[in-house]
Specification:
about 200 residues, alpha/beta, 7-stranded mixed β-sheet
């Protein structure tokens, strides 16, 4: 019988992307949304690592199963690393992707293209029911465009331009999953996941 791996998220985009990235594992993946009474952990950590660990540990404690969580942020050099850990809430507590993108573009309005360097960073955390936690990190370098391009992806993807000139939102799902920050973090965590069999 396969062990269950809880994906500690209620975000269907994130869950589907994680499942698409990871190779077939000897684990049955279930999202936290499948567990009645589960609630999202409060993401009030000062870093991506803190939030990822908090989410994974809370899910593992609630379900009694191994849990995998991630936290992702966009770091823009010209903004001192902002929005960073507050990427999902950049324009406010219930901000939409459109509002976050609009605020980011407004704050970069006077910044020339060569100074718009940025990176997506993803930290994944794997927590055991007994309280042990492992983390791994992945990053993707690029820059912020002057306006959104592409209809794929989500969040800041239309504004994040890769060295080849395409934004993440202009990549196919398979292309994005081959190079993304989340893919790199999950690849670094893969040995731990395989050891759960």
């Amino acid at each position: 019988m396969e062990k269950t791996l809880v994906l500690a998220t209620f975000n269907r985009h994130k869950a589907s992307e994680m499942l698409a990235i990871m190779p077939r594992l000897p684990l049955e993946p279930r999202t936290l949304a499948e567990f009645p009474g589960a609630v999202p952990a409060e993401e009030d950590g000062a870093s991506l690592e803190e939030n990822a660990v908090k989410k994974a540990a809370a899910a593992a404690a609630f379900t009694g199963l191994w849990a995998l969580a991630d936290d992702t942020g966009l770091e823009v050099d010209a903004l001192g690393g902002a929005p960073g850990v507050r990427s999902a809430r950049y324009a406010g507590g219930n901000a939409t992707a459109a509002a976050n993108n609009a605020l980011l573009l407004a704050r970069l309005a006077d910044v020339p293209p060569e100074r718009r360097t940025a990176r997506f960073v993803c930290v994944v955390a794997l927590a055991s029911p007994g309280g042990g936690v492992f983390t791994a990190r992945g990053a993707l370098e690029g820059r912020i465009t002057a306006g959104g391009r592409g209809g794929a992806g989500f969040g800041y993807d239309p504004l994040f331009e890769l060295p080849d000139g395409r934004t993440l939102a202009e990549l196919s799902e398979a292309e994005k999953n081959a190079v993304s920050h989340r893919a790199r973090a999950l690849a670094a965590m893969l040995p731990r996941l395989l050891a759960l069999r």
